[in-house]
Each structure stands twice: as C-alpha cells, then as structure tokens.
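W.,

You were right to be curious about this one. When I first looked at the sequence I had no strong expectations either way, so I just let the prediction run and decided to look at it fresh. Below is the sequence, 125 residues in total, followed by the output.
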Amino acid sequence: MFEQASSSEPRNIAGDWALRGGIAVAFAIFGAEKFPSDGSSSWVKLFHEIGIGQWFRYFTGVVEVLGGMLVLIPWTVTAGLALLACTMASAFLILTFVLGRPGDCIVSGAFFIGLAAFYWSRRSR
C-alpha cells in the first residue's frame, strides 16, 4: 500500500565535484581577501567594528581557506562543510547581534543554508 522511500539512485559524481569545487574556490577567495592589511580594505574596517582585534580577521581567513581545501578531499568533505557552515553561522550571528546590522547577514545566512543543504543531500545518499 505504501512505498518505502529509498535513495537508491547513485550520486552524480560530476555534479558533486562541481559543487565541491565551486565551494572550495569561493571560500579560498573569501579567505584570501582577508589577509591584506590595507587600511582601506572593507575587511579591515569590518573586523575593527567587531572589536575583537585584527587577529580574528586572519583566523577567519585561515578557517575559510582550510574549509575550502577540506571540501575538495573526498574523506574530509563533511569536516570542511561543517567548518564552513559554522563560520557562516558565526558571521550571521556577529552581523546581527554584535554589529546590529541584520540586513547585512543575508549573504552569510544564504551560504549557511546552502552548505547545510549540500551536506544534507550528500548525507541522504
């Protein structure tokens, strides 16, 4: 009477690699943008507003680049996605509650949702 839902379809390997590659490139770029210490950089200004110190900008850059690299390695995809999702959730919370700019957190929130959805789609297969 009822059919049991099963995920018997194989994962699209090319699509999986394309998404993982896109995530890796995006976060490598986002992370690398945080390293230059040019005083006119928007990242320097943003992290100054946060008030923790510029070390947090470097830390965030390293985490994003590392997460992007982990997503490329097949056996560390889950760790990379978790690291990047936590980073985007933190950015969402910092922009909303620390800086009081909830309108600016749309991008980080969208990345969080996208990373979580990609993890969930990989997990269910």
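Here's what jumped out at me. The two ends are 24 Å apart (CA to CA). And, maybe more interesting for your project: DSSP finds five helices and no strands in the chain.

Coffee later to discuss?

I.
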